[in-house]
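for the recovery benchmark. tokens below, seq after
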């Protein structure tokens, strides 16, 4: 997942991925460019959409990084 990329590369993004991908936070919120969003193989599931509703600055191309594979 995108969260794995951040963790495995020791990227210092304060607080990113606080729940380690268990869909209980929205700290991994990312806003994608439309073409990138359209290329994702899967749409957000119900649990991801519920957490996205709590994300700051939600957009039409928002996703949770821990759910992007
Ligand atoms: Fe918490 Fe993605 S890391 S929802």
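predicted aa per position
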């Amino acid at each position: 997942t995108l969260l794995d990329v951040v963790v495995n590369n020791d990227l210092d993004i304060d607080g990113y991925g606080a729940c380690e991908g268990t869909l209980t936070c929205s700290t991994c919120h990312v806003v994608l460019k439309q073409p990138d969003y359209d290329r994702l193989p899967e749409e957000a599931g119900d649990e991801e959409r519920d957490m996205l509703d709590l994300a700051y600055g939600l957009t039409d191309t928002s996703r949770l990084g821990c759910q992007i594979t």
